[in-house]
Amino acid sequence: MDEKLFEASRKGETSTLLQLIEEDPLILEDNTHHASLETPLHVSSSHGHADFVRQILKQNPGLAKTANRKGYTPLHLASANGHVETVNELLKIEREIGGHELCRRKDDKGRVALHLAVIKGRERVVGELVMACPESIKEITDKKETILHLAGKNENGCKFVKGLIDGIKAKEMLNLKDEDGNTVLHLATLRKQHEVMNLLLQQPELDVNAVNSNNLKALDILLKGPKQSNDEEIAHMLHLASMPKLENQVLTDPSRPNNAVVDAVVEVDMTMKDSTSKKNNVDSFKWLEEMRRGTTVAAVLIATVTFEVALNPPGGVWQDGGNVDSNVDSPLTGNHIQGKSIAGDVSPKSLTWFLVWDSIGFLASMNIIVMLTIPSKLKANSIRWEYVRLMMWFVIASVHMVFLYGVQLTTPSYIFQRAVIAPFVFFYGVVGLLALRSGWSLVTDWRNLAKEIWNKKKR
């Protein structure tokens, strides 16, 4: 291409173009003999210079059909770059010459201009191309990809898929497969596009049980891939959608005998109950996840506090060596060591029980943290969850006892009995029954879980 003409095409200098044509009327014709190269129309279309494109098309409309080395026509380039005005100028030529040759012209990968606009997320261009050539929606690439397959490749995949399904009526392509046997649902699952999957699952035409070349359904891909927070909910939706529509079988299959109809009605009822049960399972899973996070935070805080008070016991530590002379609890005499607990010399029994309960709280909290951070699904009836519940009881008990012994070590006995013991007695008198009931429930759960495991082993 002439260097001046290339620069004029790149910058959109229409006056330079007209000057060059005046100097050499065949300058644009010369470029038609080099179909494998970029023409001035390719360059100006790629940069979106609509006026420049208009002038070239007036001089040589045939350039609109010319493809470069990659098979791109000027319409491909203008569409991919989102230049709506340039696309409209090129489509005028399409309307003048009749037919839809430009809109259905494919590049070396079998993609029409509409495909490139969808991949790049050019909404306005997609609308113009569909209005100009509705048939281009049905075009597929060399990899057998439909417009829906390609829609998921841009950042606004959900928005585009919804627009294509609702506005362009592309529902008949929901179940078409690419060269690997993947439907658009397979690809959305593979890319973890949960919004797209949720939208697709609302379409009654969708075949959720379609398998790809590896004989995998979308649900199989979801379960085998890396896990994300809301995979469980999507998996539940996929599972429900994959269930056979027994209601339709009852109404539309006249060959079934009457007793079979009754059986089918029973099956439908069981399916509805199973659906409700699975919904409850999803709600239970969400509750468990919230409980996991909350319990983990609480366990970390309690572990931190119990660790801290073990190193800094109530009453502090001796700042220097000397003799102990105290009448509190168990008075001892003799030398004390700098840095050792004062309560250990003054009231060793109370400090011993304080540290026993503090250790129980610390170890139980650490156990809870370990159990809740194991990277596997948490179930309401699992041994792991029951173990966490048991450890929480130990933590609660230890926190109570650490509080009692800690206050006892630092408070005169007459104040301790009135200000601490009395409220504790009143509190446990009120909630004692509830605590016993909860404790019995925990014991019952452990017993039922043990029976269930034993029965499974016997089978």
The CATH architecture of the domain at 1-139: Alpha Horseshoe
Beta-strand content bin? under 5%
Q: Whole-Å distance between the termini?
A: 81 Å
CATH topology category name of the domain at 1-139: Serine Threonine Protein Phosphatase 5, Tetratricopeptide repeat
Query: What is the 3D form?
Result: elongated
Strand order of the largest sheet: 1-2
* Poorly predicted runs of 5 or more residues: 246-279, 324-333
What is the H/E order? HHHHHHHHHHHHHHHHHEEHHHH
Q: What is the subunit arrangement here?
A: single chain
Q: What is the CATH C-level name of the domain at 1-139? A: Mainly Alpha
Q: Tell me roughly what share of residues is in helical segments.
A: 55-70%
Q: What's the CATH H-level superfamily name of the domain at 1-139?
A: Ankyrin repeat-containing domain
Radius of gyration: 38 Å
| Global structural class | mainly alpha
Number of DSSP-assigned strands: 2
Average predicted confidence as pLDDT: 75
Largest sheet: 2 strands, antiparallel
Distinct helical segment count? 21
Question: What key phrases describe this protein's structure?
Answer:
459 residues; mainly alpha; two-stranded antiparallel sheet; Ankyrin_rpt
